[in-house]
Amino acid sequence: MALSGVKNDRGELRILENLDELRTDLADYIAELSEAAVKERGVFAIALSGGSLIGLMGKLCEAPYNKTVDWAKWYIFWADERVVAKNHSDSNYKLAKDGILSKVPIVPSHVHSINDSVSAEEAADEYMFVIRQLVKTRMVSVSDISDCPKFDLILLGMGPDGHIASLFPNHAVLEETDEWVTFITDSPKPPPERITFTLPVINSASNVAIVVTGESKAEAVHLAIDNVEPNCPSLPARLVQPTKGKLVWFLDKPAASKLDDLQFSE
Ligand SMILES: O=C1O[C@H](COP(=O)(O)O)[C@@H](O)[C@H](O)[C@H]1O
């Protein structure tokens, strides 16, 4: 049985009994947001991450979602990408293509992955340009309080160190507020070269979901969500605070095991 509730200003928590329930709840959540965005705007602009998230989204390729989701209206982006060839096993694009995009009727021209034949800096600049064009045509909305794109949904995973997208703890990239997309060449987790959405873009989204499973991430979940002393100001996951949008955490029980005072109604 799922536990669900709101914790302080850290968003909605959904703690699922097991991975199968988490996969179903996540698929339902994405399908509902897709339907709402298509009804309101005619399109659904979704940004993916890599890592364990993609496997956890797998139910979207199964019934009923494979038939009921309006895939033709999806515009796909990446919240972060490793600067490797698209057919490299480290590529977040390849992970999503093999795991999801090749299994549902997405329009190929709606899939916006990075240019894998240029430097990290050029790839970030080009990606930002592409997003800018799609903001101009309103395929991606624009935030009314910042000049940032407002994605309908940004899906994030979180590493055991609390990193989200390619925003790592204590890294200067956390301070980047001028650009929508930036790059790093010294990622503490290989591969070193990556592009990433910046915090202002993540926090301008209409919806942000952080999907975390496993006991190895329980401490980072506690530091990201609970009122801890001293506060962890540079823990990237704690800096996800959508200005007007909604933040939802999808956790399995091991990932939630170190949270303080869980008082939820079942
Ligand atoms: O390197 C990355 O790691 C994070 C977390 O991955 P996970 O396998 O621990 O879930 C991922 O969200 C990010 O997109 C990826 O580039």
Automatic annotation (TrEMBL):
According to its UniProt record, this protein's enzyme class is: hydrolase
What Pfam families does its record include? Glucosamine_iso
Q: Which InterPro entries match?
A: 6-phosphogluconolactonase_DevB, 6PGL, Glc/Gal-6P_isomerase, NagB/RpiA_transferase-like
Q: Which residues form the Glucosamine/galactosamine-6-phosphate isomerase domain?
A: 19-249
Catalysed conversion reaction: 6-phospho-D-glucono-1,5-lactone + H2O = 6-phospho-D-gluconate + H(+)
For molecular function, the Gene Ontology terms on record are: 6-phosphogluconolactonase activity
The EC number(s) this enzyme carries: 3.1.1.31
Pathway terms, separated by semicolons: Carbohydrate degradation; pentose phosphate pathway; D-ribulose 5-phosphate from D-glucose 6-phosphate (oxidative stage): step 2/3
- What cellular component terms from Gene Ontology apply here? cytoplasm
Keywords from the UniProt entry: Hydrolase
List the GO biological process terms. carbohydrate metabolic process; pentose-phosphate shunt
Asked if the keyword NAD belongs to this entry, the reply reads no
Superkingdom is Eukaryota
Which family, according to the similarity comment? Belongs to the glucosamine/galactosamine-6-phosphate isomerase family. 6-phosphogluconolactonase subfamily.
Q: What is this protein called?
A: Probable 6-phosphogluconolactonase
Q: What is the lineage of its organism?
A: Eukaryota, Viridiplantae, Streptophyta, Embryophyta, Tracheophyta
